[in-house]
Amino acid sequence: MFFKKQKRTEWKSDDDVYMESSICTGETLIGFRNKNTGKLENAVVVRSQSDIDDFYAEHGLINTKNYRKN
Asked: What's the pLDDT score for residue 60?
C-alpha cells in the first residue's frame, strides 16, 4: 500500500564501475556511477585487492581497468 516501488536496475557494465577516495579520510569506495546524478551506487568500501575482486565477481564482471589497491 504505502511501499515505494523499487526500480529495476539496468544492466551494469565494466564501463560503469568507478572508484572514489575521500580526501579527508582516505577511504576508498568502488561502485557503479549513475550517469544521470553522478552518484556512486552499490558502493563498497575497499580495504584490499580482494575487495575489488569480490565486487567484480559478485556482479559477474571482469576487471578490465585493472584497479589496484595497495
From this structure: 86
